[in-house]
Amino acid sequence: MSTGQQHPHGPSSGFFECDVRGLHRHxxxxxxxxxxxxxxxxxAPINDFELNELYIWNWRxxxxxxxxKATSSTYLQSFAFLxxxxxLLSAIRGGTGELHLHDFTDPGDTVNCISPARCTFCYPxxxxxxxxxxxIRVDPSPSWVPDNLSKAPFHSTPDSRIVAIGVGLFNHxxxxxxxxxxIVPLSVFTSVSHLKQVTMxxxxxxxxxxxxxxxxxxxxxxxxxxxxxxxxxxxQGEDDDTGDxxxxxxxxxxxxxxxxxxxxxAIRDGLLExxxxxTVVSIDSPIGLTAYLTALRYKMKTISLPSRLARPDLEVxxxxxxxxxxxxxxxxxxxxxxxxx
Length: 341
Known about the structure:
Strand content: 35-45%
Number of helices: 3
Structural class: mainly beta
Strand order of the largest sheet: 1-2-3-4-8
Order of helices and strands: EEEEEEEEEEEEHEHEEEEHEEEEEEE
Number of strands: 24
Helix content: under 10%
Distance between the termini: 32 Å
Mean pLDDT: 84
Largest sheet: 5 strands, mixed
Shape: globular
Radius of gyration: 21 Å
């Protein structure tokens, strides 16, 4: 990027070409890199969602590996590389959410439609709400290896990592929006990557093996998951009426750890006070509250930020050995505070 020269390990041209249907200036793009693969999701405006396409190139060779296209009934929303051969896509079909697991190294035609996924994971029907957003986040990438200079005491194994999915639900009648985080162990997906065109209903994969969290997530600062951990921040104090943005605000930061080894060790040692076994989220429905129970265990630690770190507006991110606080609403450039543990 600093020299403008071609990458020494890339193709001579350095350009990838694709013919996207109906491309114009209102389109959006999502780009991810994993090992030798570059994935770009072309996202059309909502009225033309059937034009969405995911392209995966081998950047070293310069060839197209796979193109996965939406259909007239399926809206592709986001994607993430899970392994060196598998990619996970989120899709919305008729107001219901789905996750599609593809092996992009499968032999055969490069261009595919959405139907031949290795496995389709279906979300439940959310009463009078429709699923309008499914945002997949996995950090670090499958190709990540620990830095030899890192002072972290240990590293999580790839198989123990989690996938964090932002779920957005909308009720047109009430004009009401509900947002959750859905935590899924990576092993839920990799354990079925050998299957062919299988559909799994919510009761078969979601209730016991995953976790719904009733917490907010940031679209602007999306590094809220790292390895086996997810992080969230919540405001504990309300704004006063003085109009002064410098007044003290109380914040709590919560770290959710889904490391199965740490959970087994805590249970063995009788340290159960931080372990949560069942999680319930709920939404209003015509017949009252509809609850959704998930049973994936996790450890949770919540701390209050010291007043010297408090700001009127904060976001939080997490890495292998640090918490990153972002004051993204300051009048100048964003302010970053890094807490190492």
